Amino acid sequence: MPTGSADLPRLFSQEPLHHMSIQPLFSYLESSTLALGWGHIDKLDTTPDPEEWLDIEHAAAARQKEFIAGRNLARALARSLALPDAPLRRADDRSPRWPADRCGSLTHCATVCAAVVSTTKEMQSVGIDLETIGRVEAKLWPTLFTARERDYLEQLEPEKASVEATVFFSAKESFYKCQYPLTQSWVGFQDVELERSDDKVLRISPTNGDKRPWHAPPIHIAAVDEQHVASLILLYR
Ligand SMILES: CC(C)(COP(=O)(O)OP(=O)(O)OC[C@H]1O[C@@H](n2cnc3c(N)ncnc32)[C@H](O)[C@@H]1OP(=O)(O)O)[C@@H](O)C(=O)NCCC(=O)NCCS
Question: Which domains does the chain have, with CATH numbers?
Answer without folding.
Answer: 22-116 (3.90.470.20), 130-236 (3.90.470.20)
